[in-house]
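ENCODED BACKBONE
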Amino acid sequence: MEEHKVITDDGRVLWAAELGRSEPGRGEPLVLCHGGPGLWDMFDGVAELLAARVRVIRWDQRGGGRSERGGPYTVARTLADLDAIRVHFGLSQMALLGHSWGADVALHYALEHPDRVSSLIYVAGTGLGQDWRDEYRRNRAERLGAERPGAELGAEPPDGEPGGKVGRAAAIRQWTADFADPSTARRHAEDLATPWFGVNEEANAALNAESHAWDEQDLVARCRELAVPTLIVDGAADVRPRWAVDSLAEALPDVARVVLPSAGHVPWVESPGSFGWAVLAHLAR
């Protein structure tokens, strides 16, 4: 893995890395957009899996992980930062894979710049509306039970500072709900939290607030015009209800949808073979 420092047009430094290499017939490079907001790239396993077949580019979004702290934290700025990644690596077009919040980032970038996106992979996203949140909280509370943390990830953990030991412990407790198999959930959550860079609470709050104001009908109309080939990947056991993505799947004109029955919110961890096959098959179209 070759690491890079990417300088944005407003002078912030973003961490990025590339794996694999482009060869004739392998398609456009694949840029991975991580979840959050305010987190960092956790794509270790899937990046290595996919890099055997395609050039893979990873990056930490502004203010998260190995990227420089400091705003502004807006959706427009996040999309501009993603375009800075594209320019830095000399890409006229790129395939995008986004997970959770990163699925929103990838989708909105494709809506703004469809000519720069050859393919879109929308993993464990939450769709175009906001009415999924109450069911998500109920599902999460039921799955966590006694392990339920005292705050949502993205709100300051109780009795500690974000980025400290208690912040990591609270995140691990919450992330156990994101896996289908309770016997391995904690180990998987600990793996995601290692290394631990801390949650950027400012970025999380600002970007979540902005996304809550998105107009579902406007997004549906824009998605109907998006000609980019899209793959939606769901884990059947995701605590975020999968019906939330239905309006997106119905709106997109060129879309396929894969549901992995043994996976939760992080499907490449629990179903790596099926996940990798689905992604590579889509990229080979």
